[in-house]
User: Fold these one by one.
Assistant:
Number 1:
Amino acid sequence: MNLLRTTSEASSNPAVTRLLWPAWLLGFIGCCALCMKLVAASPATDPDPTLEYKVKAGYLFNFARFVEWPAHSLSSTNSTITIGLLTSDPAAPILQQALSGKVANGRPLKVLLLAETSELALCHMFFFSRAEKGRLEEILKHSRGTTTTTVGEIDRFAHRGGIINLVRKDESYRFEINLKAGEQAGLKISSKLAVMATIVDTQ
Protein backbone atom coordinates (compact mmCIF):
# COMPACT_ATOMS: atom_id res chain seq x y z
CA MET A 1 0.00 0.00 0.00
CA ASN A 2 1.60 3.29 -1.11
CA LEU A 3 0.97 5.83 1.63
CA LEU A 4 3.10 8.61 0.16
CA ARG A 5 2.50 9.81 -3.39
CA THR A 6 5.92 11.41 -3.71
CA THR A 7 7.49 13.02 -6.74
CA SER A 8 11.13 13.81 -7.44
CA GLU A 9 10.47 17.30 -6.07
CA ALA A 10 8.78 15.95 -2.95
CA SER A 11 11.52 13.46 -2.22
CA SER A 12 14.06 16.28 -2.02
CA ASN A 13 11.77 18.65 -0.13
CA PRO A 14 10.30 17.38 3.17
CA ALA A 15 7.78 20.24 3.28
CA VAL A 16 6.36 19.25 -0.11
CA THR A 17 6.31 15.57 0.89
CA ARG A 18 4.18 16.36 3.94
CA LEU A 19 1.63 18.10 1.72
CA LEU A 20 1.16 14.85 -0.19
CA TRP A 21 0.41 12.77 2.91
CA PRO A 22 -3.26 11.79 3.38
CA ALA A 23 -5.07 13.75 6.11
CA TRP A 24 -5.77 10.58 8.12
CA LEU A 25 -2.07 9.73 8.18
CA LEU A 26 -1.12 13.23 9.29
CA GLY A 27 -3.57 12.91 12.17
CA PHE A 28 -2.10 9.63 13.29
CA ILE A 29 1.45 10.90 12.96
CA GLY A 30 0.51 13.91 15.06
CA CYS A 31 -0.90 11.64 17.75
CA CYS A 32 2.22 9.47 17.72
CA ALA A 33 4.46 12.53 17.87
CA LEU A 34 2.59 13.70 20.97
CA CYS A 35 3.09 10.29 22.51
CA MET A 36 6.83 10.51 21.92
CA LYS A 37 6.96 13.94 23.55
CA LEU A 38 4.99 12.59 26.50
CA VAL A 39 7.33 9.65 27.06
CA ALA A 40 10.47 11.71 26.53
CA ALA A 41 9.31 14.27 29.07
CA SER A 42 8.33 11.68 31.71
CA PRO A 43 10.35 9.19 33.75
CA ALA A 44 10.62 5.87 31.92
CA THR A 45 8.75 3.94 34.59
CA ASP A 46 6.25 6.56 35.73
CA PRO A 47 4.65 8.68 32.96
CA ASP A 48 2.12 11.32 34.02
CA PRO A 49 -1.19 9.37 33.93
CA THR A 50 -3.26 12.43 33.01
CA LEU A 51 -1.15 13.24 29.97
CA GLU A 52 -0.77 9.57 29.10
CA TYR A 53 -4.50 8.89 28.96
CA LYS A 54 -5.29 12.14 27.16
CA VAL A 55 -2.96 10.88 24.44
CA LYS A 56 -4.57 7.44 24.51
CA ALA A 57 -7.98 9.10 24.15
CA GLY A 58 -6.66 10.34 20.81
CA TYR A 59 -5.91 6.76 19.83
CA LEU A 60 -9.43 5.65 20.82
CA PHE A 61 -10.89 8.48 18.76
CA ASN A 62 -8.91 7.36 15.71
CA PHE A 63 -9.85 3.72 16.27
CA ALA A 64 -13.50 4.82 16.19
CA ARG A 65 -12.85 6.45 12.82
CA PHE A 66 -11.31 3.38 11.20
CA VAL A 67 -13.42 0.52 12.55
CA GLU A 68 -16.73 -0.33 10.86
CA TRP A 69 -19.38 -2.04 12.99
CA PRO A 70 -22.18 -4.29 11.66
CA ALA A 71 -25.30 -2.50 10.40
CA HIS A 72 -27.42 -3.87 13.24
CA SER A 73 -25.01 -2.28 15.72
CA LEU A 74 -24.98 1.18 14.12
CA SER A 75 -28.25 1.56 12.26
CA SER A 76 -27.68 5.01 10.71
CA THR A 77 -24.80 7.20 9.56
CA ASN A 78 -25.09 9.43 12.64
CA SER A 79 -25.67 6.73 15.26
CA THR A 80 -23.76 7.23 18.49
CA ILE A 81 -20.57 5.22 19.09
CA THR A 82 -20.52 4.10 22.72
CA ILE A 83 -17.13 3.70 24.40
CA GLY A 84 -17.24 1.69 27.60
CA LEU A 85 -14.97 2.10 30.62
CA LEU A 86 -15.08 0.42 34.02
CA THR A 87 -16.09 2.74 36.85
CA SER A 88 -13.26 1.22 38.90
CA ASP A 89 -10.64 2.05 36.25
CA PRO A 90 -8.49 5.03 37.36
CA ALA A 91 -8.14 6.06 33.70
CA ALA A 92 -11.92 6.39 33.26
CA PRO A 93 -12.37 10.03 34.43
CA ILE A 94 -9.50 11.24 32.22
CA LEU A 95 -10.75 9.40 29.14
CA GLN A 96 -14.34 10.43 29.75
CA GLN A 97 -13.41 14.09 29.89
CA ALA A 98 -11.14 13.86 26.84
CA LEU A 99 -13.69 12.03 24.64
CA SER A 100 -16.88 13.81 25.65
CA GLY A 101 -18.36 15.83 22.81
CA LYS A 102 -16.10 14.34 20.12
CA VAL A 103 -17.50 13.26 16.75
CA ALA A 104 -15.91 10.54 14.59
CA ASN A 105 -16.99 10.37 10.94
CA GLY A 106 -20.23 12.18 11.76
CA ARG A 107 -20.99 9.90 14.70
CA PRO A 108 -21.00 11.41 18.21
CA LEU A 109 -18.98 9.57 20.83
CA LYS A 110 -20.59 8.66 24.13
CA VAL A 111 -18.68 7.36 27.14
CA LEU A 112 -20.53 4.75 29.19
CA LEU A 113 -19.25 3.82 32.65
CA LEU A 114 -19.77 0.14 33.45
CA ALA A 115 -19.99 -1.37 36.91
CA GLU A 116 -19.35 -4.91 35.63
CA THR A 117 -17.60 -6.48 32.64
CA SER A 118 -20.82 -8.42 31.94
CA GLU A 119 -22.19 -5.13 30.53
CA LEU A 120 -19.46 -4.98 27.91
CA ALA A 121 -21.84 -5.89 25.06
CA LEU A 122 -23.59 -2.53 25.55
CA CYS A 123 -20.57 -0.80 24.00
CA HIS A 124 -19.17 -0.48 20.50
CA MET A 125 -15.71 -0.07 21.97
CA PHE A 126 -14.37 -1.00 25.40
CA PHE A 127 -11.09 0.16 26.91
CA PHE A 128 -9.43 -1.02 30.11
CA SER A 129 -6.13 0.13 31.52
CA ARG A 130 -3.31 -1.89 33.04
CA ALA A 131 -4.82 -1.14 36.46
CA GLU A 132 -7.56 -3.63 35.58
CA LYS A 133 -5.14 -6.39 34.56
CA GLY A 134 -6.60 -8.74 37.14
CA ARG A 135 -9.92 -8.74 35.27
CA LEU A 136 -8.41 -9.73 31.92
CA GLU A 137 -9.93 -13.21 31.78
CA GLU A 138 -13.46 -12.00 32.57
CA ILE A 139 -13.12 -9.22 29.98
CA LEU A 140 -12.10 -11.73 27.32
CA LYS A 141 -14.95 -14.03 28.39
CA HIS A 142 -17.63 -11.35 28.18
CA SER A 143 -16.34 -9.98 24.90
CA ARG A 144 -16.82 -13.27 23.05
CA GLY A 145 -19.84 -13.25 20.79
CA THR A 146 -20.15 -9.45 20.88
CA THR A 147 -19.41 -6.79 18.26
CA THR A 148 -17.38 -4.80 20.78
CA THR A 149 -13.95 -3.54 19.79
CA THR A 150 -11.87 -4.39 22.83
CA VAL A 151 -8.85 -2.16 23.46
CA GLY A 152 -6.32 -2.84 26.19
CA GLU A 153 -2.78 -2.02 27.24
CA ILE A 154 -1.86 -5.36 28.78
CA ASP A 155 1.08 -7.45 27.61
CA ARG A 156 -0.06 -9.89 24.87
CA PHE A 157 -3.70 -8.82 25.16
CA ALA A 158 -4.23 -9.04 21.39
CA HIS A 159 -2.45 -12.41 21.29
CA ARG A 160 -5.02 -13.70 23.79
CA GLY A 161 -8.06 -12.66 21.78
CA GLY A 162 -8.31 -8.92 22.35
CA ILE A 163 -8.74 -6.83 19.22
CA ILE A 164 -6.41 -3.84 19.77
CA ASN A 165 -3.57 -3.51 22.25
CA LEU A 166 -1.63 -0.32 22.98
CA VAL A 167 2.02 -1.06 23.71
CA ARG A 168 4.92 1.08 24.81
CA LYS A 169 8.07 0.55 22.79
CA ASP A 170 11.24 2.57 23.21
CA GLU A 171 10.07 6.20 23.36
CA SER A 172 6.61 5.88 21.84
CA TYR A 173 3.26 4.13 22.08
CA ARG A 174 2.27 1.78 19.29
CA PHE A 175 -0.54 -0.70 18.83
CA GLU A 176 -1.18 -4.29 17.85
CA ILE A 177 -4.30 -5.53 16.04
CA ASN A 178 -5.71 -9.04 15.99
CA LEU A 179 -7.51 -8.94 12.63
CA LYS A 180 -8.98 -12.42 13.04
CA ALA A 181 -10.50 -11.51 16.39
CA GLY A 182 -11.97 -8.40 14.78
CA GLU A 183 -13.41 -10.44 11.93
CA GLN A 184 -14.95 -12.91 14.37
CA ALA A 185 -16.62 -9.97 16.10
CA GLY A 186 -18.14 -8.87 12.80
CA LEU A 187 -15.92 -5.79 12.54
CA LYS A 188 -14.26 -4.36 9.45
CA ILE A 189 -10.94 -2.80 10.37
CA SER A 190 -9.73 -0.35 7.75
CA SER A 191 -6.45 -1.12 5.98
CA LYS A 192 -5.52 2.49 6.80
CA LEU A 193 -5.51 1.50 10.47
CA ALA A 194 -4.00 -1.95 9.96
CA VAL A 195 -1.02 -0.55 8.06
CA MET A 196 -0.06 1.49 11.14
CA ALA A 197 -0.23 -1.55 13.45
CA THR A 198 1.66 -4.72 14.25
CA ILE A 199 -0.66 -7.55 13.17
CA VAL A 200 -0.87 -10.47 15.57
CA ASP A 201 -2.91 -13.67 15.84
CA THR A 202 -4.57 -15.44 18.76
CA GLN A 203 -2.19 -17.85 20.48
Number 2:
Amino acid sequence: MNPQAAQLRRSRLTLILLGVLFVGPLIGAWILYSAGLRPSLTTNYGTLVQPTTPLPKLELRNAAGEPQPELMLGRWSLVQLGGETCDAACSERLVLTRQVRLALGAAGVNKDRVQRVFIVPSADAAVAASSQLREAHKILHIVADQTAAGQRAADIFKPTDPQAIYLIDPNGNWLITYQNQTDADAFQRGLLKDLKKLLRLSSIG
Protein backbone atom coordinates (compact mmCIF):
# COMPACT_ATOMS: atom_id res chain seq x y z
CA MET A 1 0.00 0.00 0.00
CA ASN A 2 1.50 3.35 -0.98
CA PRO A 3 1.95 6.04 1.73
CA GLN A 4 -0.85 8.25 0.35
CA ALA A 5 -3.34 5.39 0.40
CA ALA A 6 -2.24 4.40 3.90
CA GLN A 7 -2.73 7.98 5.14
CA LEU A 8 -6.21 8.08 3.55
CA ARG A 9 -7.12 4.78 5.21
CA ARG A 10 -5.95 6.08 8.63
CA SER A 11 -7.97 9.27 8.17
CA ARG A 12 -11.08 7.22 7.33
CA LEU A 13 -10.56 5.05 10.41
CA THR A 14 -10.22 8.18 12.52
CA LEU A 15 -13.51 9.53 11.17
CA ILE A 16 -15.23 6.21 11.92
CA LEU A 17 -13.86 6.27 15.46
CA LEU A 18 -15.10 9.81 16.00
CA GLY A 19 -18.48 8.86 14.61
CA VAL A 20 -18.77 6.00 17.08
CA LEU A 21 -17.52 8.18 19.93
CA PHE A 22 -19.58 11.31 19.40
CA VAL A 23 -22.40 10.60 16.94
CA GLY A 24 -23.40 7.18 18.29
CA PRO A 25 -24.29 8.48 21.76
CA LEU A 26 -26.31 11.27 20.17
CA ILE A 27 -28.44 8.74 18.29
CA GLY A 28 -29.02 6.80 21.50
CA ALA A 29 -29.83 9.99 23.36
CA TRP A 30 -32.31 11.02 20.65
CA ILE A 31 -34.10 7.66 20.99
CA LEU A 32 -34.32 8.10 24.75
CA TYR A 33 -35.41 11.71 24.30
CA SER A 34 -38.18 10.60 21.97
CA ALA A 35 -39.29 8.14 24.62
CA GLY A 36 -39.61 10.99 27.08
CA LEU A 37 -36.49 10.28 29.16
CA ARG A 38 -34.82 13.62 28.19
CA PRO A 39 -31.10 12.76 28.54
CA SER A 40 -28.41 15.37 27.95
CA LEU A 41 -27.33 15.58 24.31
CA THR A 42 -23.82 16.78 25.22
CA THR A 43 -21.33 14.00 24.53
CA ASN A 44 -17.97 15.77 24.35
CA TYR A 45 -16.63 18.81 26.16
CA GLY A 46 -14.47 20.27 23.41
CA THR A 47 -15.13 21.35 19.83
CA LEU A 48 -14.70 18.62 17.23
CA VAL A 49 -12.48 19.67 14.33
CA GLN A 50 -14.33 19.03 11.06
CA PRO A 51 -12.90 17.77 8.87
CA THR A 52 -10.13 16.06 10.82
CA THR A 53 -6.96 18.01 10.07
CA PRO A 54 -3.55 16.29 9.68
CA LEU A 55 -0.84 18.48 11.17
CA PRO A 56 1.87 19.49 8.71
CA LYS A 57 5.47 18.80 9.60
CA LEU A 58 6.60 21.15 12.37
CA GLU A 59 10.23 21.89 13.17
CA LEU A 60 10.21 21.37 16.93
CA ARG A 61 13.30 21.40 19.13
CA ASN A 62 13.62 20.76 22.84
CA ALA A 63 15.39 23.07 25.28
CA ALA A 64 18.71 21.44 24.40
CA GLY A 65 18.17 22.27 20.73
CA GLU A 66 17.57 18.65 19.71
CA PRO A 67 15.06 18.08 16.87
CA GLN A 68 11.80 16.31 17.79
CA PRO A 69 10.43 15.38 14.33
CA GLU A 70 8.04 12.64 15.50
CA LEU A 71 7.05 14.06 18.86
CA MET A 72 3.32 14.09 18.12
CA LEU A 73 3.16 10.64 16.57
CA GLY A 74 2.46 7.38 18.37
CA ARG A 75 0.60 8.79 21.37
CA TRP A 76 -2.39 11.02 22.10
CA SER A 77 -1.10 14.56 22.62
CA LEU A 78 -2.56 17.37 24.69
CA VAL A 79 -0.96 20.43 23.12
CA GLN A 80 -0.75 23.85 24.73
CA LEU A 81 0.79 26.91 23.07
CA GLY A 82 2.90 29.20 25.20
CA GLY A 83 4.55 32.58 24.84
CA GLU A 84 7.99 33.87 25.73
CA THR A 85 7.01 33.44 29.40
CA CYS A 86 4.48 31.23 31.20
CA ASP A 87 2.27 33.40 33.40
CA ALA A 88 -0.16 32.31 36.13
CA ALA A 89 -2.96 31.39 33.70
CA CYS A 90 -0.54 29.38 31.55
CA SER A 91 0.79 27.58 34.62
CA GLU A 92 -2.72 26.78 35.88
CA ARG A 93 -3.64 25.21 32.54
CA LEU A 94 -0.51 23.05 32.63
CA VAL A 95 -1.42 21.91 36.13
CA LEU A 96 -4.90 21.01 34.92
CA THR A 97 -3.65 18.78 32.09
CA ARG A 98 -1.14 17.20 34.46
CA GLN A 99 -3.96 16.34 36.87
CA VAL A 100 -6.11 14.94 34.06
CA ARG A 101 -3.31 12.63 32.97
CA LEU A 102 -2.77 11.46 36.55
CA ALA A 103 -6.50 10.90 36.94
CA LEU A 104 -6.45 8.59 33.91
CA GLY A 105 -3.96 6.39 35.69
CA ALA A 106 -6.01 6.45 38.90
CA ALA A 107 -9.05 5.34 36.86
CA GLY A 108 -7.19 2.29 35.55
CA VAL A 109 -6.46 3.79 32.12
CA ASN A 110 -2.94 3.59 30.72
CA LYS A 111 -1.89 7.24 31.12
CA ASP A 112 1.30 6.60 29.15
CA ARG A 113 -0.85 6.64 26.00
CA VAL A 114 -1.27 10.38 26.59
CA GLN A 115 1.49 12.97 26.55
CA ARG A 116 1.52 16.72 27.19
CA VAL A 117 3.29 19.02 24.75
CA PHE A 118 4.03 22.68 25.49
CA ILE A 119 5.02 24.60 22.34
CA VAL A 120 6.77 27.94 22.75
CA PRO A 121 7.83 30.41 20.04
CA SER A 122 11.62 30.48 20.46
CA ALA A 123 14.67 28.59 21.71
CA ASP A 124 15.12 31.11 24.55
CA ALA A 125 11.51 30.59 25.61
CA ALA A 126 12.05 26.81 25.67
CA VAL A 127 15.09 27.19 27.93
CA ALA A 128 13.20 29.56 30.23
CA ALA A 129 10.12 27.31 30.37
CA SER A 130 12.24 24.26 31.09
CA SER A 131 13.92 26.05 33.99
CA GLN A 132 10.60 27.36 35.32
CA LEU A 133 8.49 24.22 34.93
CA ARG A 134 10.74 21.18 35.20
CA GLU A 135 10.24 20.64 38.95
CA ALA A 136 6.42 20.80 38.83
CA HIS A 137 6.06 19.11 35.44
CA LYS A 138 8.60 16.32 35.12
CA ILE A 139 6.65 14.63 32.32
CA LEU A 140 6.08 17.52 29.93
CA HIS A 141 7.56 17.96 26.47
CA ILE A 142 8.69 21.58 26.14
CA VAL A 143 9.62 22.45 22.58
CA ALA A 144 10.40 25.54 20.54
CA ASP A 145 8.57 25.92 17.25
CA GLN A 146 11.20 26.84 14.69
CA THR A 147 9.04 26.17 11.64
CA ALA A 148 9.03 28.83 8.93
CA ALA A 149 6.85 31.86 9.59
CA GLY A 150 3.27 31.30 8.49
CA GLN A 151 3.52 27.53 8.97
CA ARG A 152 3.97 27.31 12.72
CA ALA A 153 1.63 25.64 15.20
CA ALA A 154 0.08 29.00 16.08
CA ASP A 155 -0.63 29.60 12.39
CA ILE A 156 -2.36 26.22 12.15
CA PHE A 157 -4.40 26.37 15.34
CA LYS A 158 -5.14 30.11 15.07
CA PRO A 159 -5.96 30.36 18.77
CA THR A 160 -8.60 32.79 20.00
CA ASP A 161 -7.97 31.63 23.58
CA PRO A 162 -4.33 31.68 24.75
CA GLN A 163 -5.06 28.84 27.17
CA ALA A 164 -6.67 26.52 24.61
CA ILE A 165 -5.78 22.82 24.56
CA TYR A 166 -5.56 20.89 21.29
CA LEU A 167 -6.00 17.12 21.17
CA ILE A 168 -3.88 15.39 18.54
CA ASP A 169 -4.31 11.68 17.76
CA PRO A 170 -1.38 9.23 17.45
CA ASN A 171 -1.44 9.60 13.65
CA GLY A 172 -0.83 13.34 13.92
CA ASN A 173 -4.43 14.46 13.27
CA TRP A 174 -5.91 17.46 15.08
CA LEU A 175 -9.23 16.19 16.46
CA ILE A 176 -10.59 18.44 19.20
CA THR A 177 -10.08 21.98 20.51
CA TYR A 178 -10.79 22.92 24.13
CA GLN A 179 -11.06 26.68 24.49
CA ASN A 180 -12.84 29.46 26.38
CA GLN A 181 -13.11 27.22 29.44
CA THR A 182 -13.89 29.50 32.38
CA ASP A 183 -14.83 26.76 34.86
CA ALA A 184 -11.59 24.90 35.54
CA ASP A 185 -13.24 22.08 37.50
CA ALA A 186 -15.86 21.43 34.81
CA PHE A 187 -13.16 21.58 32.15
CA GLN A 188 -11.02 19.06 33.99
CA ARG A 189 -13.95 16.66 34.37
CA GLY A 190 -15.00 17.08 30.74
CA LEU A 191 -11.50 16.58 29.35
CA LEU A 192 -11.02 13.50 31.50
CA LYS A 193 -14.34 12.07 30.33
CA ASP A 194 -13.46 12.64 26.66
CA LEU A 195 -10.04 11.01 27.04
CA LYS A 196 -11.48 7.98 28.83
CA LYS A 197 -13.92 7.45 25.96
CA LEU A 198 -11.28 7.82 23.29
CA LEU A 199 -8.78 5.52 24.96
CA ARG A 200 -11.41 2.85 25.57
CA LEU A 201 -12.59 2.89 21.96
CA SER A 202 -9.24 3.33 20.22
CA SER A 203 -6.47 0.76 19.94
CA ILE A 204 -3.98 3.24 18.45
CA GLY A 205 -1.42 5.02 20.56
Number 3:
Amino acid sequence: MLLSEDTVPVLNTIEDKQNSIFFDINRLGTKSYELGGTMEINTHQAIDPALCGRPLSVGQGCSRVRLTASQAMAADDTGLVHGGFIFGLADYAAMIAINQPNVVLGAADVKFLKPMRVDQTVVADAKVEEVQGIKYWVAVSVTREEGEDIIFQGMFTCFVPERHVLGRS
Protein backbone atom coordinates (compact mmCIF):
# COMPACT_ATOMS: atom_id res chain seq x y z
CA MET A 1 0.00 0.00 0.00
CA LEU A 2 1.37 3.40 -0.90
CA LEU A 3 0.51 5.88 1.82
CA SER A 4 -1.48 8.74 0.39
CA GLU A 5 -2.69 10.78 3.37
CA ASP A 6 0.81 11.71 4.45
CA THR A 7 3.39 10.89 1.82
CA VAL A 8 6.14 8.92 3.48
CA PRO A 9 9.60 10.34 2.74
CA VAL A 10 12.40 7.87 2.16
CA LEU A 11 15.26 7.99 4.66
CA ASN A 12 18.25 6.49 3.00
CA THR A 13 21.23 8.73 3.28
CA ILE A 14 24.20 7.37 5.16
CA GLU A 15 23.39 9.79 7.97
CA ASP A 16 20.06 11.57 8.18
CA LYS A 17 20.69 14.20 10.86
CA GLN A 18 17.12 15.48 10.90
CA ASN A 19 15.80 12.12 12.06
CA SER A 20 18.91 10.92 13.93
CA ILE A 21 18.98 7.69 11.98
CA PHE A 22 22.26 6.12 10.92
CA PHE A 23 22.12 3.28 8.46
CA ASP A 24 25.11 1.80 6.66
CA ILE A 25 23.58 1.10 3.27
CA ASN A 26 26.75 -0.39 1.84
CA ARG A 27 27.04 -2.97 4.62
CA LEU A 28 23.81 -4.63 3.48
CA GLY A 29 24.55 -4.13 -0.21
CA THR A 30 21.38 -2.20 -0.91
CA LYS A 31 20.79 0.70 -3.24
CA SER A 32 19.84 4.13 -2.01
CA TYR A 33 16.80 5.98 -3.28
CA GLU A 34 16.46 9.68 -3.89
CA LEU A 35 15.87 11.62 -0.71
CA GLY A 36 12.35 13.01 -0.67
CA GLY A 37 10.90 10.14 -2.71
CA THR A 38 8.40 7.64 -1.42
CA MET A 39 8.68 3.98 -0.61
CA GLU A 40 5.74 1.64 -0.63
CA ILE A 41 4.96 -0.15 2.63
CA ASN A 42 4.67 -3.86 1.82
CA THR A 43 3.86 -5.34 5.22
CA HIS A 44 1.38 -5.09 8.10
CA GLN A 45 -1.03 -3.15 5.92
CA ALA A 46 -4.06 -3.75 8.17
CA ILE A 47 -2.45 -2.12 11.24
CA ASP A 48 -4.65 0.47 12.96
CA PRO A 49 -2.54 3.65 13.23
CA ALA A 50 -4.50 4.69 16.33
CA LEU A 51 -3.09 1.64 18.13
CA CYS A 52 0.37 1.12 16.61
CA GLY A 53 1.27 4.51 15.17
CA ARG A 54 1.36 6.32 11.87
CA PRO A 55 4.44 5.99 9.64
CA LEU A 56 6.27 9.28 9.17
CA SER A 57 9.03 7.89 6.98
CA VAL A 58 10.23 4.60 5.61
CA GLY A 59 13.41 3.87 3.74
CA GLN A 60 15.70 1.04 2.84
CA GLY A 61 16.29 -0.56 6.25
CA CYS A 62 14.83 2.19 8.42
CA SER A 63 11.55 3.71 9.52
CA ARG A 64 10.03 6.36 11.76
CA VAL A 65 6.56 5.99 13.29
CA ARG A 66 4.58 8.39 15.56
CA LEU A 67 1.97 7.44 18.17
CA THR A 68 -0.18 9.67 20.37
CA ALA A 69 -1.56 7.79 23.37
CA SER A 70 -5.33 7.81 23.79
CA GLN A 71 -7.38 7.34 26.95
CA ALA A 72 -8.15 3.80 25.79
CA MET A 73 -4.44 2.97 26.30
CA ALA A 74 -4.48 3.93 29.99
CA ALA A 75 -3.56 1.21 32.46
CA ASP A 76 -5.02 3.11 35.43
CA ASP A 77 -6.69 6.35 36.46
CA THR A 78 -3.37 8.27 36.54
CA GLY A 79 -3.12 8.09 32.74
CA LEU A 80 -0.16 5.70 32.68
CA VAL A 81 -0.04 4.09 29.23
CA HIS A 82 0.22 0.30 29.21
CA GLY A 83 3.64 -0.79 27.94
CA GLY A 84 2.05 -3.10 25.38
CA PHE A 85 1.13 -0.09 23.25
CA ILE A 86 4.69 1.21 23.32
CA PHE A 87 5.92 -2.28 22.41
CA GLY A 88 3.37 -2.46 19.57
CA LEU A 89 4.65 0.84 18.18
CA ALA A 90 8.27 -0.37 18.32
CA ASP A 91 7.35 -3.72 16.77
CA TYR A 92 5.49 -1.99 13.91
CA ALA A 93 8.47 0.31 13.27
CA ALA A 94 10.75 -2.75 13.10
CA MET A 95 8.41 -4.55 10.69
CA ILE A 96 8.23 -1.66 8.21
CA ALA A 97 11.98 -1.05 8.44
CA ILE A 98 12.34 -4.58 7.01
CA ASN A 99 9.31 -4.01 4.76
CA GLN A 100 8.86 -7.57 3.49
CA PRO A 101 5.29 -8.96 3.18
CA ASN A 102 5.89 -12.07 5.33
CA VAL A 103 8.05 -10.53 8.10
CA VAL A 104 7.33 -11.79 11.63
CA LEU A 105 8.77 -11.16 15.07
CA GLY A 106 10.77 -14.01 16.59
CA ALA A 107 12.18 -12.40 19.73
CA ALA A 108 12.72 -9.06 21.40
CA ASP A 109 15.13 -7.81 24.04
CA VAL A 110 13.58 -4.58 25.32
CA LYS A 111 13.88 -2.03 28.10
CA PHE A 112 11.12 0.31 29.26
CA LEU A 113 13.13 3.30 30.49
CA LYS A 114 10.50 5.93 31.34
CA PRO A 115 6.70 6.01 31.64
CA MET A 116 4.31 7.42 29.05
CA ARG A 117 1.08 9.25 29.81
CA VAL A 118 -2.19 9.54 27.91
CA ASP A 119 -2.08 12.38 25.34
CA GLN A 120 1.72 12.23 25.02
CA THR A 121 3.22 11.69 21.58
CA VAL A 122 6.23 9.47 20.99
CA VAL A 123 8.27 8.57 17.93
CA ALA A 124 9.87 5.20 17.20
CA ASP A 125 13.02 5.11 15.06
CA ALA A 126 13.98 1.71 13.71
CA LYS A 127 16.99 0.58 11.71
CA VAL A 128 18.14 -2.78 10.45
CA GLU A 129 21.45 -3.58 12.15
CA GLU A 130 22.25 -6.97 10.65
CA VAL A 131 20.89 -9.51 8.20
CA GLN A 132 21.77 -13.22 7.99
CA GLY A 133 19.65 -15.07 5.47
CA ILE A 134 16.02 -14.74 6.54
CA LYS A 135 16.97 -13.40 10.01
CA TYR A 136 17.06 -9.64 10.68
CA TRP A 137 18.08 -7.72 13.78
CA VAL A 138 16.39 -4.33 14.11
CA ALA A 139 17.27 -1.71 16.73
CA VAL A 140 14.35 0.48 17.85
CA SER A 141 14.38 3.54 20.08
CA VAL A 142 11.23 5.36 21.21
CA THR A 143 11.51 9.00 22.30
CA ARG A 144 9.06 11.62 23.45
CA GLU A 145 8.26 13.89 20.53
CA GLU A 146 8.60 17.08 22.58
CA GLY A 147 12.05 16.18 23.92
CA GLU A 148 15.00 13.90 23.78
CA ASP A 149 13.77 11.54 26.53
CA ILE A 150 14.25 7.94 25.44
CA ILE A 151 11.42 5.93 26.95
CA PHE A 152 12.03 2.54 25.30
CA GLN A 153 14.85 0.70 23.55
CA GLY A 154 14.91 -2.72 22.02
CA MET A 155 16.54 -5.16 19.67
CA PHE A 156 13.99 -7.09 17.62
CA THR A 157 14.89 -10.41 15.99
CA CYS A 158 12.68 -10.86 12.96
CA PHE A 159 12.30 -13.48 10.26
CA VAL A 160 11.18 -13.26 6.65
CA PRO A 161 9.94 -16.73 5.68
CA GLU A 162 9.18 -17.53 2.07
CA ARG A 163 5.51 -18.11 2.91
CA HIS A 164 3.14 -16.37 5.33
CA VAL A 165 3.22 -18.02 8.80
CA LEU A 166 -0.51 -18.78 8.48
CA GLY A 167 0.07 -20.65 5.25
CA ARG A 168 -0.90 -17.95 2.78
CA SER A 169 1.54 -17.10 0.02
